[in-house]
Each structure stands twice: as structure tokens, then as C-alpha cells.
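Dear support,

We are seeing what looks like truncated structure output for some complexes. This example has two components. We would appreciate it if you could run it in full and send us the complete C-alpha cell output so we can diff it against ours.
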Amino acid sequence: MTLAIGAALAVFTGIGAGIGIGIATGKAAESIARQPEAADKIRGTFILGAALAEATAIYGFITALAIIILK
Amino acid sequence: MDKLKEVLAESMAGTPAVSVFGLFDVPESVAVTWILMALVTAASFILTRSLQRIPGGRQTLLELAIGAFNHFCEENLGRHWRSFAPWLFTVAVYIAAANLAGLIGLAPPTRDLTVTAALALMSMILIYGAQFRFRGFSGGFKKFAQPTPVLLPINLMEIFIRPLSLCMRLFGNVLAAYVIMEMIKTLAPAVIPIAFSLYFDIFDGLIQTLVFVFLTTLFLGESIEENE
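Here is the complete output from our reference environment:
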């Protein structure tokens, strides 16, 4: 039971990643609307930021797996 | 639920062995990689056979894809892009094929931690090898103290953090997609998994390919960029 609670807590990192990617997407859309000619550069920066933000969720997921499996 | 737990334990500890003609055992990810290698080799052979000066439909598509990728490399890597583009495209093709292997009923090799670790290690060797190759021995070391010497410890830490995060990101994404798909299949075995499979197998697989290659290119471009 406590193991399951620990794993669930680890998966809460997903909240941060979700908020982070949401903000990044919103800002990227905003800046592309403002400067459509810079779309390529903005896309590159956005993918990098989203990938880094998403990594936290993945670390949480792997931690949760490790808690359940490795005990 | 017990089956799920078994699958999870397997993918953390390496995939189960497959026997080759009863002679020796190889991990499942290696066997699937062999199948993918055969498919990709056959596809490359068919696509590049009898190339014409005035391209037909098949060749036009091929040239578009290669041209777009070369343009992307040129933009991010600068003057030396030509020596890196073939390697980066090969990795992209392999990861895309591996992530899509689930569609034809094979276990994706990228679900195995050792496969993604090997890919990330190759990226690391490429990034720091290129740094010393194009900056010279002392220039390569000086890069670690740029833009300011204060960042030296962080730059040194990044040598290990970058491959670790590349490896864990690819592995975690593919495994997470697999786990969620298994849960959906247990809850609703018919029809409904198709829609989710489109997202988790195709879209997520291709996005992760893009992210892996894009990050490698970005790090590579950063380590060989020139300050004119």
C-alpha cells in the first residue's frame, strides 16, 4: 500500500511537465502569430524546451516504476 | 495486472532471450533489430535503384526528404554539416523504425534500456569527439570553460547528464506508451485501442525520433560552432 502511494506521488511530476509544456506551447503560438517569418527558429527552441520540460515527467515515471519493481 | 508487472520488470532488466536456430541466445531487442535492419536495407535498396537525372515520383519524394534533412543539418551545424548528416539520418531512420515496430506486432527495441543507452552513448561520443576534432586538442578543452569559466563544472557535468537524459527520455516515452496501451487493452479490448494506438504508437514514436535527433544536432552544433 505504501509502495503504491509512493509511486503515485512520484508520478505527480507530470503536473509540472504539463504546466511547463502548456506555457511553452502558448508562448510559441503567440510569437509565431506575432512574427510568422521566425517560425522555424521558434519551432526549434520550442521543441528543445518541451523536450526538457517533458523529461521531468519521464523521470517521475521511471522513479515510480523503480519504486514498484525494485522495492 | 501481474502480467503488466512482469513486462515492466523485463524491460527494466533487459528483454527476454530469443534462440537463433537453437545455436545461441540473443536478447529480443537484438533479434527485432535484425528484422528491422533487413527491412530498412531492402527499402533503401528499392528506393535507390536506377536513379535518374530527371527524377520520377519515387525519386522526387526521396530527394525531398534528404534535401529537407540536409537543410536542417546545415542550419544547425554550420560549415561542417556534411560529415554528420548521414549518421544523424541513419539514427533517425533506426529510431523511427524501432518505435513503429509495435505496429507490425514486434516488441519495439527502444523499450529496452540497453538499446537507448547505446544510442545515447554514440551521441555523446559524436558530440565530444567532434568538439576535439574541429577545435583541436587545447581548443576542445577550452570549450568547457566557455562562455565563462564559472560554468566549467556545469559543462563537465553535462558530459554525463546529456546522454543520461537522452537515454531516459527515449526509453521512458516508449515504455510509458507501451504501459498505457496495455492498460487500455485490458479495459477495452475491442476497437477503442485503435484510436489510442494512432497517438501512442505513431505520433509519439515519430515525435520522440525527432526530439532525439534534434537534441543531438543541437548539442553537436553547440560544440563545433565557431565564434567569428
